């Protein structure tokens, strides 16, 4: 079990998650709040003073956690993590899209944020139609996302890729079924069983992050039994790949 | 977001994307030719080609799968500029493994390089 991780974005929201292992693979997250695990399978959350937790799940609705149960946000306030953006569909918060400061205001949160900061003021400018996390305009008029938002998008994409690969949806790129030799096939057969000709290196779909880097999850799969082992994340931003 | 852009900025962005694509295609051909000529190792070439393939094709492409696989299988090995970060003693230990991998993947990599040169080379765009 890894230590809980948390970061604070310019809106003052604290995002947190914690790795845990299941069947020998660390591919899901616990929602972590106030030193306690409150749920699993959710990928981010923000704690409120009254013990409420807004738990976020990629592609799923935002939920408020109260007394051990989850309620949907009023609105509805669906939040999706799509291509590195934190997008929310239309909700009931002042006729716009609830996210960041609006959710915080609805829950009566003010702690830990400088309301006079430029980031705080800018956040109110992006409330029509789609909210794009903590964004700024660059010189070319293109939206630039903060490092935290890009990182969170990558994390969620990687979790999703890992889940796909672990469930057998990876694409073989080497070894069994590809016509290309897999160097580690013998040692995989020795370690995990089966014959060397059954093992393939598989890859998830590629995810292009907003910072231009491309990430994938690779693993070995026994195409006869479906067993998936030794998953790892790879990125085009790793050394030697530019 | 692009629909909200000024037409001039949209055109500039399109031009930039087109220029970048040409640049990547040229880079791919140059790396493949260097690999075939033995100027760059199979592992180092695979690392670069795998990344360029993803960038150019916005995802997996069968012609780059060989390099994706080689890169993934050898990403623990120090080649190219990365060797500067390793001690001579550690490099000595890894060099044997690098030689084995280079020999094992050479044929597949060369065949894939030839295919990419055929696909992205400028030959087709020259007048007959």
Structure, described:
The complex is a heterodimer of chains A (242) and B (128). Chain A is an alpha+beta fold and 242 residues long. Chain A has helices at residues 101-106, 118-123, 147-166, 185-192; strands spanning 5-8, 14-22, 25-33, 36-40, 44-47, 53-56, 63-66, 69-72, 79-82, 85-88, 135-137, 143-145, 171-175, 199-203, 207-208, 214-222, 228-235. In chain A, strands 13, 14, 15, 16 and 17 form a five-stranded antiparallel beta sheet that branches. A four-stranded antiparallel beta sheet of chain A has the order 1-2-3-4. A four-stranded antiparallel beta sheet of chain A has the order 5-6-7-8, with no helix packed on it. Residues 1-23, 25-67, 72-115 and 117-143 of chain A have low confidence and may be disordered. Chain B has helices at 7-36, 42-57, 65-74, 88-120. The radius of gyration of chain B is 18 Å and the shape is elongated. By secondary structure, chain B is mainly alpha-helical. The model of chain B is unreliable at 124-128 (pLDDT under 50). In chain B, α1 packs across α4, α2 crosses α3 and α3 runs antiparallel to α4. Chain B contains four helices and no strands. Chain B has one domain (2-121). The N and C termini of chain B lie far apart (43 Å). The chains are: A alpha+beta (242), B mainly alpha (128). The interface between A and B is medium-sized, with 30 and 33 residues.
């Amino acid at each position: 079990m890894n230590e809980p991780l948390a970061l604070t974005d310019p809106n003052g929201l604290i995002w947190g998650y914690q790795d845990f292992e299941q069947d020998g693979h660390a591919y899901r997250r616990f929602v972590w709040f106030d030193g306690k695990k409150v749920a699993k399978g959710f990928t981010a959350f923000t704690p409120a003073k009254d013990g409420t937790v807004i738990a976020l799940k990629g592609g799923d609705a935002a939920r408020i956690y109260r007394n051990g149960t989850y309620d949907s946000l009023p609105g509805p306030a669906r939040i999706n993590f799509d291509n590195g953006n934190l997008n929310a569909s239309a909700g009931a918060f002042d006729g716009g899209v609830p996210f960041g400061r609006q959710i915080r205001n609805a829950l009566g949160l003010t702690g830990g944020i400088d309301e006079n900061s430029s980031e705080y003021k800018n956040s109110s400018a992006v409330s029509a139609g789609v909210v794009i996390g903590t964004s700024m305009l660059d010189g070319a008029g293109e939206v630039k996302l903060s490092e935290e938002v890009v990182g969170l998008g990558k994390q969620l994409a990687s979790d999703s890729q890992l889940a796909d690969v672990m469930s057998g949806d990876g694409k073989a790129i080497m070894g069994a079924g590809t016509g290309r030799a897999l160097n580690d096939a013998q040692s995989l057969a020795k370690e995990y069983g089966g014959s060397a000709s059954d093992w393939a290196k598989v890859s998830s779909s590629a995810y292009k992050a907003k910072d231009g880097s491309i990430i994938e999850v690779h693993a070995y799969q026994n195409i006869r039994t479906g067993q998936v082992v030794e998953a790892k994340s790879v990125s085009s931003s790793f050394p030697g790949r530019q | 977001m692009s629909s909200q852009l000024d037409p001039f900025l949209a055109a500039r962005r399109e031009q930039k994307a087109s220029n970048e694509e040409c640049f990547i295609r040229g880079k791919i051909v140059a790396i493949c030719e260097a690999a075939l000529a033995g100027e760059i190792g199979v592992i180092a070439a695979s690392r670069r080609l795998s990344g360029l393939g993803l960038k150019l094709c916005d995802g997996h492409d069968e012609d780059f799968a060989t390099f994706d696989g080689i890169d993934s299988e050898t990403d623990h090995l120090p080649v190219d500029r990365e060797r500067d970060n390793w001690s001579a003693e550690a490099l000595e230990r890894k060099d044997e493994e690098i030689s084995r991998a280079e020999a094992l993947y050479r044929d597949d990599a060369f065949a894939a390089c030839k295919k990419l040169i055929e696909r992205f080379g400028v030959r087709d765009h020259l007048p007959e």
